[in-house]
C-alpha cells in the first residue's frame, strides 16, 4: 500500500504563488475576525446564503438537482424528499449543518468520516452510508470520441480502511507538530482522500464536506459565509484538471500535489475576497439604492437579482428589486429576459 508522511512536507520548498496564497489567506483571516465582531447580523445572513449555495452546487457537480422551489423547501426543512436526488440533497444539508454547528468537536478520524458519510445517505434507501467500498471503483472520463476511459484507479477495497486511518493520523501529527502550514496539509489530505476514493458513492461530496471541516478546525471560517462549493462548481474543469495533474505517480509516491494545492488555495483566496467585498458594502452605511448601485458597478457581464442580494446581505429582496428597477429607469442598467430567466447588464 502507498505510504503517507505529512511531516516530511516541511522539507519541501513551495513556489511564489503558493507562498503568496498562504500569506493572503492568513491576512484575510485576521480581517474576517474583525468583521465578525463588528457586523454579526450581516454575517449571519451570509451564512444562510452560503448554506443554500453549498448544498445546491456540491450536489449539482455530481448531476444531482431539483427545482429552486423544492431546493429552498428542503434546505429549510419544510418538506420531505420526493426523489432520489432530493434524498441526497437533504443528506448533504444535514451533514453540512453538523459541520457548521459542531466542527470543534469533530476530530479527523476514520469513525467520524464514516459517520459523516452515513449522514450524507441518511435519507436514501441505499445501504452504503457509513461503509467503505467493497468493490473496486474507477475514476473515468469521456474521451474525444465519447467513449468512457479510466483515468485513475483508486486503492483496492482491502487497502482502503488502513489508508484512510493513515491520512487521518498523519494530518493530526503534522498539525500538532506545527512545522507545516495547515493550508498545505488540507489540500494534501483532500487530494489523498480523493485518490483513495474510499466509498462506492459520494466521494466528491465527502471531499468538499471534509474541506470545509478541515478549514474550520484550523481557524479558516470563510466557507461558512461564502460557499466554497459554489466556487468549485464555477471552475469545475480547472478542479478536475488540477486533480488529474496531481494524481500522476500517486500509487508510487511520486505524485506532486502542487497543482491541487494551488487550485484549492486560490479558491479560498477568492472566497475571502468576496467576503471582504460584501462586508465593505455593508460598512459604508449607504442607503439601499446606493448600496445596490455600488454592487452593480462591481459586476461584469450579465447578472441576476439573486447575485446582487448576495452582495448586499443587509438588504431585503424588495429593496434590491426596487433599486434595480430605478437603475433600469435611469438608464444605468438594461433588463433582459423574463421570469426566472431575467438578468441585467450594465449600460456604461
Q: What does the model show?
A:
With 348 residues, this protein is mainly α. The protein folds into two domains: 15-281, Fic-like fold; 287-346, Winged helix-like DNA-binding domain superfamily/Winged helix DNA-binding domain (Arc Repressor Mutant, subunit A, Orthogonal Bundle), CATH 1.10.10. It has helices spanning 16-38, 40-61, 68-75, 84-102, 110-120, 160-177, 182-196, 203-217, 228-234, 236-247, 258-283, 288-297, 305-311, 317-329, and strands at residues 139-142, 148-152, 333-336, 343-346. β3 (333-336) and β4 form a beta hairpin. 36% of the residues are buried.
CATH class bucket of the largest domain: Mainly Alpha
CATH topology of the largest domain: Fic-like fold
The CATH superfamily of the largest domain is Fido-like domain
Q: How can the largest sheet be summarized?
A: 2 strands, antiparallel
Tell me the Rg in angstroms.
Answer: 21 Å
The tally of domains stands at: 2
Shape: globular
- CA(first)-CA(last) distance: 60 Å
Structural class: mainly alpha
- Please report the number of helical segments: 14
In percent, how much strand structure appears in the residues? under 5%
Q: Which whole number gives the mean pLDDT? A: 93
The CATH level-2 architecture of the largest domain is identified as Orthogonal Bundle
Spans of at least 5 consecutive residues whose pLDDT stays below 50 are none
Which key phrases capture this entry?
mainly alpha; Fic-like fold; two-stranded antiparallel ribbon; 59% helix; globular
Q: Secondary-structure map with pairings?
A:
Blueprint: H1 16-38, H2 40-61, H3 68-75, H4 84-102, H5 110-120, E1 139-142, E2 148-152, H6 160-177, H7 182-196, H8 203-217, H9 228-234, H10 236-247, H11 258-283, H12 288-297, H13 305-311, H14 317-329, E3 333-336, E4 343-346
Antiparallel strand pairs: 1-2, 3-4
Helix pairs in contact: 1-11, 2-4, 2-9, 3-4, 4-5, 4-8, 6-7, 7-8, 7-11, 10-11, 12-14, 13-14
